[in-house]
Amino acid sequence: MIRFLIHAVINLVMAAVGLLLAGALIDGVSMQPSGFITAVLVFVLAQALLAPFVFNLARQYASAVLGGVGLVSTLLALWIATLMPNGLTMDGVSAWVLAPLVVWLVTALGTWVAGYFLVTRWWDRRTDRAAIRKAVA
């Protein structure tokens, strides 16, 4: 349960960083401060729900594009996040092409790195300490 919560927090933080970075780097991508949290929550929820669905569709009908599942689900999650009022807005083709790339890259790499350092290493230290306590007792 603790690992799940840590992963959820990491996903939220990385999504926020990815959306902020996309907003800062890409013309046509903007967020209203009042709707930023809503945009992040909607994006993370949509990403969590869409990724397995897109993966299953790609696996069943187009296995050659399985590598792009993350990008497609990110694009769809961004689109859903733009539907919320006073949140994320994306204007122009370049914004719709580059924003999913930036957000996907930040969330994928950030989640992987943070997950390794925060969860895997923490979990390993915890199990090592438990094994030592058990051996001493």
Describe the structure.
Helix content is 79%, strand content 4%. A two-stranded antiparallel sheet has the order 1-2. The longest helix has 44 residues, at 93-136. It has one domain. The protein has helices spanning 2-25, 36-61, 69-82, 93-136; strands spanning 29-31, 88-90. The two termini are 27 Å apart. The chain is globular, with a radius of gyration of 18 Å. The chain contains 4 helices and 2 strands. Helix 1 packs across helix 2 (36-61) and helix 1 runs antiparallel to helix 4. The protein has 137 residues and is mainly α.
Task: List its salient traits.
137 residues; mainly alpha
What's the helix and strand layout?
Layout: H1 2-25, E1 29-31, H2 36-61, H3 69-82, E2 88-90, H4 93-136
Antiparallel strand pairs: 1-2
Helix pairs in contact: 1-2, 1-4, 2-3, 3-4
- Domain unit count: 1
Residue stretches low in confidence (pLDDT < 50, at least 5 long) are: none
Helix vs. strand class? mainly alpha
Query: Regarding quaternary structure, how should these chains be classified?
Result: single chain
Task: Encode the helix/strand succession as letters.
Answer: HEHHEH
What proportion of the residues is helical, as a percent range?
Answer: over 70%
Give the overall shape. Answer: globular
Q: State which percent range the strand residues make up.
A: under 5%
Total helical elements: 4
Radius of gyration: 18 Å
